[in-house]
Protein 1
Amino acid sequence: MSSRVRSGCAALIAAIAAVAACHDEGTPKPSPSIADLQDPNTCASCHASQVKEWQGSMHAYAAEDPIFLAMQKRAQRETNGQIGTLCAGCHAPIAVREGLTTDGQNLASLPAQKRGVTCYFCHSATDTTDSHNNAITLSDDLVLRGDIRDPKANAFHASTYSTLHDGDDLHASALCGTCHDVVNPAGVPVESSFAEWQKSLFSHDVAGQKLTCQGCHMPGHDAPVAQGGPQRRAHDHTMPAVDVAVIPFAEAESQAAEVQSNLDPALVAKMCVRPPQQGDTVEVTLDNAFVGHNFPSGAAHDRRAWLELVGYQADKIVYQSGVFADGQEISTAKDPSLWLFSDTLYDKDKKVVPFLWQAASQEVVALPFAVTSDPKDPAFYHAKVRTFPVPASADRITMRVRIVAFGPEILGELVKSGDLDPAIAKKVVPLSLGGTTLEWKTALGYKCVP
Ligand code: HEC
Ligand code: HEC
Ligand code: HEC
Ligand code: HEC
Ligand code: HEC
């Protein structure tokens, strides 16, 4: 596949290059060098909202993330450097492509515009050559690609339309997908958001079903996209999901609020309370109806998502499952009814291992995505159901789904090996999905909520 490139750019670049040649070093340049285009600060005068949104995003955070840095440090040590630029290749792709790092250990000493997933990285992408491990081809033609078919000329950079960036075109998922699919050196697909999406309903080229990564993660609103430009569809660059910064970071508060409002409606939940003679009294249904891939997805071996269910009798707890204090280990907890969604990694001896480079195989336990909109197709019902033995004496039952970016057991490993500051580990706390927060009381009778 290749993106369509509007003709006429070559002439524009030639014109810009001619102007640039007349200017001395040090005077303001009316045309960009690659270094100018790589610096997100140069975009701010014309694309203030995109810059602000991106600055708070996990893409800006990707190489600042202290947990990433700790994990990468341990990966290098454990593999005697064999891991090379694998991690930095996605978390600091410009630095790797320019040969500024061979192991990702010197990222902090590089200029900010070489770290993270930057404007320039996404907007100079022309093509993908594989479905995983960041197989993106970049152009050095100084033309920025986007979803606008008739971009207005501007004094700074050349622009062109590309299907790889157009959230209405299925091709665009490949731009995100090849980074959001990680295959480790042993060939284990340890992060698979793209592969999952490709099997989902949302990858069908059918109106009413089709939703690219951008379609969900970059919602649009009507506004100019450049200072003084015409009314367009402006696409959100905050891209919230699960992860939030655990160090002081731009837009941290609004990003956290975005993450919460993205998670709240993600699942559809139902809790049914039955008379005790019908067996386990509480039946919970969880439906991943609106997520374009598994829940959880991506770094699902780091993530822990689970059901918290509590039964009360006169405000005294008579039953509980999935109740964890912040920082308490989850996947190793003694909780026989725990309903946990998380990937487990194994080494070649089938022993559980915490980190993606150690995995020889994995087990995926997730709420699966929708694959068909046809109610007559047996695959239509993909919700999961579980029952819980809540004593019939309970007069109030509450539930909610919770998710934490890292299992405390993973962070504990990094603290133990001296790679992660325990104060950082403490900052990682679970979130709850508002739409799954349900309550039943005796007064409702034996029935389902909502
Ligand atoms: C193909 C690209 C790619 C490669 C290679 C890659 N990552 Fe990532 N990494 C990602 C993406 C995309 C995410 C976001 C996934 C998600 O949010 O679920 C991520 C997320 C993470 C996170 C979680 C971030 C957070 O704070 O929640 C950590 C930690 C991490 N990666 C470490 C590593 C390490 C260590 C390596 C190398 C051994 C590595 N990654 C290799 C793309 C990559
Ligand atoms: C001098 C103002 C100015 C600066 C500085 C600027 N841009 Fe633009 N950019 C524009 C204008 C004007 C458009 C066209 C908007 C339109 O047609 O609605 C545009 C369009 C774009 C497009 C869309 C292209 C398409 O066809 O879809 C992208 C992507 C883009 N700019 C990225 C950037 C990035 C990244 C930077 C910083 C490296 C940057 N711009 C700096 C003015 C600017
Ligand atoms: C992770 C990749 C990625 C990064 C990083 C990124 N963009 Fe974008 N950007 C896109 C995609 C994809 C679109 C088109 C979305 C669509 O059509 O749904 C887009 C659209 C745009 C547009 C066209 C108007 C619009 O909103 O559709 C502009 C301008 C733009 N981006 C500027 C920037 C600037 C400036 C930065 C850095 C501060 C940046 N982008 C960072 C992927 C990215
Ligand atoms: C160069 C590789 C790369 C590309 C291209 C890329 N991403 Fe990412 N993305 C990452 C990495 C790495 C992270 C995690 C950074 C961290 O937290 O350490 C991430 C994080 C995210 C997150 C936040 C996940 C969470 O758990 O909170 C979302 C959502 C996301 N990306 C969506 C997209 C979309 C949509 C696109 C395409 C428009 C895209 N990404 C393109 C590498 C990439
Ligand atoms: C139909 C809407 C939809 C589509 C399509 C979609 N996503 Fe998501 N995505 C969500 C929602 C909602 C969440 C938050 C719930 C969750 O974490 O799974 C999410 C979460 C994520 C996360 C964080 C996962 C985690 O648990 O850490 C990543 C990474 C991500 N999406 C990347 C992608 C990529 C890449 C694509 C395209 C290949 C994509 N998404 C397509 C709706 C969508």
Note: Residues 1-29 have pLDDT under 50 and may be disordered.
Protein 2
Amino acid sequence: MRTLLVGFGVVGVALLGWGLRVGTVHAAPDEAATPQFYATRVQPILKEHCYRCHGGMNHRGGLNLATRAGMMKGGHDGPVVVAGDPAKSLLVRLIRHEGPANDPMPMPPKLPEISGADIATVTRWVKAGAIMPDDVPRR
Ligand code: HEC
């Protein structure tokens, strides 16, 4: 009897594992890989923390984050976003304080600091392909 129960237990665990795998396979496509994610989650963060120096009339470091063209062109040091690769994206490295330490310096350079949750959102967006609407509306 005991062996039988253990047997059922193993089958149960196996079935559970299979069920979880099937669940992942059928999961919805990553919402971070949509232009809506940029418009509703990422752009508000950039607007709040970056546009005053990288939008409108101000293109500090040669970088305008307020338009798609500006985002793609990057700044004095070249492209700042490498789609799918946060570790190679200067924008992500600077907000995560992963260097370079001085030139250019960590962003934003002054308070208020960008929150951990916001950093995670921007990182997730770059990792998912940095997809944005064609016409990022100007501020
Ligand atoms: C108070 C003004 C200010 C704010 C706010 C600010 N930046 Fe900057 N940013 C600068 C300046 C100045 C530079 C040029 C620094 C340098 O070259 O050493 C720069 C440079 C950069 C660069 C490097 C461009 C290049 O090619 O060298 C990136 C990427 C960047 N900023 C991203 C951001 C992001 C993302 C935010 C918002 C989280 C932000 N910045 C907020 C002033 C600002």
Note: The chain has a mean pLDDT of 86.
